[in-house]
Specification:
heterodimer, A: seven-stranded mixed sheet, four-stranded antiparallel sheet, 0% helix, globular, B: mainly beta, six-stranded mixed sheet
Chain lengths: 115, 112
């Protein structure tokens, strides 16, 4: 998994509770991404980071926030979880954004169930 | 809204046959295209990347790109049961920071 870990790997929570997912990389890559994967929708980008403290929104960012205080860690927070946020969450990293060097590598994923 | 379309399948092929997976995209400015394979319950893993019109071969896999038609495909020769997985097409959209748009994936089933 290209030196990427995600924690927790599985989580069950209740509607309205805050949840934080962690992505940790050992590759020292600058770019990090959070995706969610749902049946029929493929992978959709939630937020991404292009450096420490530099983040921006993806296509499905409502209800999510992120933080990156160190190169190796990218945190995804659901401020108040809803059942629509039940999904599999993947973190990805990329060394560069230069064409031919921009491959994204994925972590093992976190399965989140919001009851 | 920039989109990537794939037939969801399942695409069923016999062992040893050629599997052909197709993808169309809407962003004419896209320059980079990727095929990922995803086994059930696992994370996506990169199989091929392609940047220029034409064919790119890597072992049993061939990626084909036609930017004029906004079409990219993946051929798997001598398909094996171990190739049974979901194949995701991803397109880097024009603009910065390497944002990818993924298709919903095509499920491939290779039967002995």
């Amino acid at each position: 998994d290209a030196g990427i870990t995600q924690s927790p790997r599985h989580k069950v929570t209740e509607t309205g509770t805050p949840v934080t997912l962690r992505c940790h990389q050992t590759e020292n890559h600058r770019y990090m991404y959070w995706y969610r994967q749902d049946p029929g929708h493929g992978l959709r980008l939630i937020h991404y980071s292009y450096g420490v403290k530099d983040t921006d929104k993806g296509e499905v960012s409502d209800g999510y926030s992120v933080s990156r205080s160190k190169t190796e860690d990218f945190l995804l927070t659901l401020e108040s979880a809803t059942s629509s946020q039940t999904s599999v969450y993947f973190c990805a990293i990329s060394e560069s954004v230069t064409v031919h060097q921009e491959t994204q590598y994925f972590g093992p994923g976190t399965r989140l169930l919001v009851l | 809204q920039k989109e990537v379309e794939q037939n969801s399948g399942p695409l069923s092929v016999p062992e040893g046959a050629i599997a052909s997976l197709n993808c169309t995209y809407s962003d004419r400015g896209s320059q980079s295209f990727f095929w990922y394979r995803q086994y059930s319950g696992k994370s996506p893993e990169l199989i091929m990347s392609i940047y220029s019109n034409g064919d790119k071969e890597d072992g049993r896999f061939t990626a084909q790109l036609n930017k004029a038609s906004q079409y990219v495909s993946l051929l798997i020769r001598d398909s094996q049961p171990s190739d049974s997985a979901t194949y995701l097409c991803a397109v880097r959209i024009s603009g910065g920071y390497n944002k990818l748009i993924f298709g919903a994936g095509t499920r491939l089933a290779v039967h002995p």
